[in-house]
Amino acid sequence: MVNHTDTSVVTIERFIIEQERLIPHATGELSGIMYDLALASKMIANKVRLAGLVDILGEEGSDNVQGEAQQKLDVIANTIIVKALDHGGRLCAMASEEEAEIIPIPPQFRRGKYLLLFDPLDGSSNIDVNVPVGTIFSVLEKVTDGEDGTLEDMLQKGAAQVAAGYVIYGASTMLVYTTGQGVHGFTLDPSIGEFLLSHPNMRIPEHGRYLSVNESYEQLWSDDVRALIRRYRGLDGKREAMNVRYVGSLVADFHRNLLGGGIFAYPANAKSPNGKLRLLYECNPLAFIVEAAGGAATNGRGRILDVQPTELHQRSPYFVGSRADVAIATEMLAT
Length: 335
Ligand code: P6P
What we know:
By secondary structure, the protein is of the alpha+beta class. The protein has eight helices and 15 strands. The site of 6-O-phosphono-alpha-D-fructofuranose has 8 residues, from loops.
């Protein structure tokens, strides 16, 4: 690992190359995927930044596979990522929150050994009110024979990921990713159009300051979930009260908790018995990141990265963040 001093100006491209050199058998394919994702992120950042100015607000009018009204930027971000990565010869298939089926690589392009799963613009309902939104991505390696990626290739446990990351389009645009060798954050300098290393080797504090949960569902939770949230809020006297911070945009809540320590909780409730968040392209990539930063993630019964997926868009109850606080969730819910 090259130790960069605070004065080093390190672009994400240089950092990716340095990371690749640490892996003896690296072919450069994963590096190529990261380059392309950084490019797509800059293009999406441009669209998000102008959202209030150009008539691309409002609903596209179509519904996505989740039955949610698609914001125009959802569709645009999805297209940007697919077009930025479908011809590089590193992927054999993609999957997106915005598309019901697997996205094949067009026949004219070479196939590679990796699969990309992503939520192109999570939290997009917040765009109209200028709340930060984000892109979340997960990279898996093909496990089946043949050239084309299949559903079986997509339905691997989160522990099998080879890379994961997110982009937060907030006060600044940041790209945070891991290939398993630490978690590293890059901030976009729009004046030069480069992501610069700003947060090398990110670590999440062992104990959280922040609790991120939508308490309007309290009446829909099970008794043990209600008791858990009371614990986090210090109401049962067994833990110091946490500060409640809930933006309603997963990437924004996750990123703040990664930096300051905290737990994000989206439990199952009577209306959503499997919770709301998607396992493959929301829960798993953020869990891969948080574990690489010293944190943890559970579905309330066990490590989320050990869950065997059965459907592309399946949902999961989700508790992610500081290790000690996730342990409380496992202790209080696993009975
Ligand atoms: P609720 C945004 O729609 C999202 O998928 C996540 O970004 C966010 O954490 C969650 O849903 C918010 O859901 O039910 O609290 O509004």
